[in-house]
Amino acid sequence: MKFVLAVALALSSFVSLASPLPDFPFVAVTGQSSKQVAPDSVTLTFSITTFHQTAEVANAQLSQASTKVLALLKANGVSDEQVTAYELEKSEKRKRDDNYNELEILGYDLNRRFEVRLSSLKQYPALLAQLYVAEYVHNLNSVFDTSERDAVETALISAAAAQARKKAEQMAEGLGVKIHSVFAFNDSGSFNSFFATFGVSDSTLVNAEMRTGSAQQVLVPQFIEISKTVNVIYKITP
Questions:
Q1: Using CA atoms, how far apart are residues 35 and 225, in angstroms rounded to an integer?
Q2: What is the residue-level pLDDT of the chain in tens, covering all 238 positions?
Q3: Pairing of strands 83-86, 2-4
Q4: Which candidate, 94, 90, 1, 105, places its Cα nearest to that of 50?
Q5: What are the angstrom distances between the C-alpha of 214 and each of 121, 125, 193, 217?
Q6: Closest residue by Cα to residue 31 from 138, 195, 160
Q7: pTM score, whole prediction
Q8: Own/partner pairs, 8-14, CB within 8 angstroms, 24+ separation
Q9: Of 3, 230, 236, 202, residue with least CA distance to 113
């Protein structure tokens, strides 16, 4: 199991200089493509949160709950390498008066976030059902994925680019001009920043359709939908 210490980094402010629009005739088009894929992996995140009037007791509760959860994960075949535990977070809860001024301390909230990566969905329903009823476990969230993502995205980008090319050719033919060459492209899904940077960035839309998997209302995905959008600027000639 890895322990990750969250460190806040102070980033210096900067000004992004926008590039000018092309100084030649062009056409800007967008192509889209999507595919439904059966997921074969999931990343499960959750938090263990405790509260008590004294920080010592709250910490003991969190430690005990964490030990039980780690034992639960191990019993479900989850190895230490599949688990990431993040830095312990501590905050005070104070009483407030009618003007929202902070008064005496009522107690302490302690929180630790966990991430569990499952390369198979076989463990998922039973594991999630057990976490649902585990003490002090909150904010359960699941993100499903496929081991074929790279290949799927490559094919989707090609299909979206082909659609963009077809649109550009149809527009050019209707206006009595010809497509000359590609000037710039990206897959950010929008032309808003596209004209400012002419860069390439990643944007993948992932949706999951869910079905009830058991009496504990564990949601198991039937598929995830991966979508890619490609924006292209073509030079045009008379």
A1: 6
A2: 655 544 333 333 333 344 567 788 888 899 999 999 999 999 999 999 999 999 999 999 999 999 999 999 999 999 999 999 999 999 988 787 777 776 788 899 999 999 999 999 999 999 999 999 999 999 999 999 999 999 999 999 999 999 999 999 999 999 899 999 998 888 765 555 555 444 333 333 333 334 333 435 677 778 899 999 999 999 998 8
A3: parallel
A4: 90
A5: 14, 8, 45, 5
A6: 160
A7: 0.70
A8: none
A9: 3
* Length reported for the chain: 238
Token match 């039980």: residue?
68
